[in-house]
Backbone:
């Protein structure tokens, strides 16, 4: 049988090891609490916090709170797809997440409990379509106003006053 002195030393050594581990875990938790990634602050959407330049694409990313890549993933399209294919995918996904029409016959309890639509997914599909459409309008906007490519993106320009009324 082991002597009580050896058992006490094992207990004290084990307590020290456990205490150090808890102390280090606490220090790491404090470090993690003080440092948070840029995207976490302010509940930013992925990639929106990095859209800091004045380019039209970054302006659209901030405005729509969605990157072009995210919109393409949601609608399951690749860069350069035609608007017809994008609209086809949009319509399919939008209808798949729409509420079902009211049935003529009453539903059973099991059928009534199954969710058949998602308003959240439907809104993401709609926002993705908006984002891709806005991105496709950038080249058109730069042709219309080559000096200020962001002028036609919905931002009002306070530096240009309205035209004066004609004199009679």
Residues:
């Amino acid at each position: 049988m082991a002597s009580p002195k050896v058992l006490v030393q094992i207990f004290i050594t084990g307590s020290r090891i456990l205490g150090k581990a808890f102390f280090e875990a606490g220090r790491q938790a404090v470090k993690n609490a003080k440092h948070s990634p840029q995207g976490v602050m302010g509940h930013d959407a992925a990639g929106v916090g990095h859209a800091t330049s004045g380019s039209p694409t970054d302006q659209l990313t901030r405005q729509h709170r969605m990157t072009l890549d995210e919109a393409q993933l949601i609608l399951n399209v690749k860069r350069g797809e035609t608007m017809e294919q994008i609209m086809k995918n949009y319509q399919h996904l939008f209808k798949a997440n729409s509420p079902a029409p009211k049935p003529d016959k009453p539903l059973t309890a099991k059928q009534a409990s199954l969710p058949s639509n998602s308003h959240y997914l439907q809104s993401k599909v709609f926002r993705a379509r908006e984002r891709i459409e806005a991105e496709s309008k950038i080249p058109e906007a730069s042709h219309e106003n080559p000096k200020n490519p962001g002028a036609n993106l919905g931002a009002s320009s306070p530096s240009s006053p309205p035209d004066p009324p004609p004199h009679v």
User: Anything to note?
Assistant: DSSP finds seven helices and no strands in the chain. The chain has a mean pLDDT of 75. The first helix runs from residue 4 to 34. The CA atoms of residues 106 and 112 lie 9 Å apart.
